[in-house]
Amino acid sequence: MQALASLCKLNFLLRVIIGLLATGCDYALTRRKEKNYAWNREKPLRITFVKILFVLARYLAFVIHIVNIVLSSIWTVKFQDNIKL
Fold first, then answer.
1. pLDDT at position 8, please?
2. pTM for the structure as a whole
3. Residue ranges of the domains in the chain?
4. DSSP code, position 68
5. 46 Ramachandran zone, left/alpha/beta (phi>0; psi -120 to 50)
6. 26: closest CA among 53, 65, 81?
């Protein structure tokens, strides 16, 4: 039963890390397009509702991935004895 609990924890952490990797690849592959379309040279600091949504959707997801990995790692160690399957 302990081996199954360890496997479930590892499986969850692996899925979260794969999600972070996919998000990172998306950032790397679309950075040039983002610069051209979202931060154009005409008015780069003009704040619009669409830019606010874009920044929230793009960069908040990355922060949430990192917080999810950190918290799940901490909680896995802290509550390791209380896990029941």
1. 63
2. 0.64
3. 2-82
4. H
5. beta
6. 65
pLDDT digits (tens, 9 = 90+) for 38-64: 777 677 678 889 888 988 888 898 898
Q: Amino acid identity, residue 31?
A: R
Structure tokens at 54: 């874009």
How far apart CA 79 and CA 17 sit, in angstroms, is 21
**Of 60, 62, 69, 57, nearest in space to 24 by CA:** 62
The amino acid at residue 20 is L
Does residue 80 sit in helix, strand or coil? helix
Distance CA 50, CA 57 (A): 10
Give the separation between CA 58 and CA 30, rounded to whole angstroms.
11
